[in-house]
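User: I'm putting together a teaching handout on how multi-component assemblies are represented. Below are the sequence lines for each component of a complex, exactly as they appear in our records. Could you produce the 3D structure of the whole assembly as structure tokens, so the students can see both representations side by side? Please keep the chain order the same as the input.
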Amino acid sequence: MKPAPFQYLCPRSVDEAVDQLARHGDDAKVLAGGQSLVPLMNMRLARPRVIIDINRIDALGYLHDDHGVLHVGALTRQRAAERSPLVAARCPLLRDALRLVGHVQIRTRGTIGGSLAHADPAAELTAIFAALDGEITARSARGTRVIAAPDLFVSYLTTSLDPRELLVEVRIPALPPDAGWSWMEIARRHGDFALAGVGVVLAGRRGVIAEARIGLVGVGPTPVRAARAERMLNGQAPSEALWAEAADAVRAAVTPDGDIHASAEYRKHVSGVLAQRALREAYSRARMAA
Amino acid sequence: MAVHPITLRVNGREYSGQAEARKTLADFIREDCGLTGTHLGCEHGVCGACTILMDGEAVRSCLLFAVQAEGADLKTVEGLADGDRLHPIQQAYWDHHALQCGFCTPGFLMTTVAFLRDNPRPTEREIREGLAGNLCRCTGYQNIVEAVAAAAEALASGAIAQAAAPHGVVPRAAVPAPLPPARAAAAVDGIVRRARRRRKAVAVKKTSKRQRKRSR
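Assistant: Of course. Below is the structure of the complete assembly, with chains in the same order as your input.
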């Protein structure tokens, strides 16, 4: 359980990190919080020749809000975002989901950018990022690139980031002020990876849903945006029958794999159940009367 | 492979050493600092036995490389007690029989230190969630949960002292709950005798304070 030897680089600036990535490319791994990478290295499932530790790039740790969009430095710790009054005010869905990311000892190190770059399809952040139409900024020696949520996730633990690119910023649109939200997931134990999880946002006016967002984790090789269910909800008056209908559309949208933890059938079933509960809770929090 | 010079502080004392980049912080603490109170269970971030405080935050020391902790301020289980005087959280674990084999205990203690600092009046559910990142194969957790609840009360009674101390360092004024009499009577080894003596001393101090107040 000891990692294989590697060369350790510790850049102090994004420019320096990007230079090192350009030089070492495929042989290098970026070390952010290390809560996924280091276990893989300890078990020697990953044996990078070069580690580029970005933890001392202070410029990558920030959280601010600009015209209704949360700007989150890639190195911002999950625990910091979870406890941020700004996140609580502008995107309580993110706060609620962060509370279920691993354990507190994971979140004190784990980063927002690292979770997205690692792209574990059971990671809560990926679904929120997808459901809210987030985007990231990546830097490389060639320049800067913006990648929108639908283009980021490719497959299990695979993103469209180039090995020479560094994820530097995550942007997540804030929720509309009157929107309701809900994060629901099923895990065997508190802090375990979710067998299935769903994030919902509902906003509307005069008792009619104007905007529904539904993102899921744990039910496929990438996070899933339930677009058909969202379209079905838009323009409708909330009701139990509508939630049930949307839940069926969510089930139809996911193609989970079965594994030792849960069968594919169970995951499919439970994603609908969770979506229905989440819609109910989101509606109870939404202010849609006016 | 290159060897990196590393200087860091553990429990207020400076340690210097050299390590390959691949050496985990947990191994550095145990092998280079000689502080073997920090235990390694799974070495891949699941069991929580290696939990320490780094710059005040609870972290898994098996998922950090020692070279990453260069210049950091660490706290391990060895930094909790004040000589023979147990930290109120340690005392509460003891009083509530919150350990059997004790292997997981250093990690639980350090998790509890950070947890109670961030949430000094937790509910039982919050305690269970707060401890969820630490595994114990002996106790069934019930006694640990009770110990943390008791520790919260003990620390709250010494809250002023705690607020003045960084990272929940031993508040000397905090008086832990007394041992249940049956358990106290059954316990005979040296450490228990020391604990009893300490309680007696505390009790004497308390009484004399009260007497002083009355005489005023």
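A couple of points students might notice: Chain B has three domains: 3-78, 81-177, 188-216. The domain at 3-78 of chain B is CATH 3.10.20.30 (Ubiquitin-like (UB roll)).
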